[in-house]
Amino acid sequence: MNKKVYWIIGAIIVFVIGVFGTVKYQQHQAKERERISWLAPHYNDSKDYILLSSDTNKLNKKQEKKFYDIARGVIESENPDISFTNLDDYSLFVKKAVGKHNYYIKYVCENPTTKLRFETTAKVTLKKESLKGTNKFDYWDYESDLDNY
């Protein structure tokens, strides 16, 4: 074989390795973006930040949904008889509270037939940084209008 054939075969091998490497790198980046999208914002930070309010939205859709789930989970822990089938989400305020892993949540739900709104506030400590899957948390300073519902 002459040198030209070796160069062509070498170029093909380098091209195939380059394509394979690029595909693998893009797959890794996609997985990393997915992992990051589930992280609780400022989890290890000790300062306080407003993450979600009527004026501020620093949460992505996944994080926002999980904080709604956490708020309802706090309510269900205090009031196991509460059913959210007749209550709609109305608003949510989330603040990263002082201290690592701590969040302040103010959740408002509404009865769609009576238009009555019920406010619940609690401080929550998340057990892990990822919000993906089932979330374990501790809560304190719980107050809710739903206690009388």
Automatic annotation (TrEMBL):
The chain crosses the membrane at residues 6-25. Keywords: Membrane, Transmembrane, Transmembrane helix. This is DUF5590 domain-containing protein. It comes from Latilactobacillus curvatus (Lactobacillus curvatus).
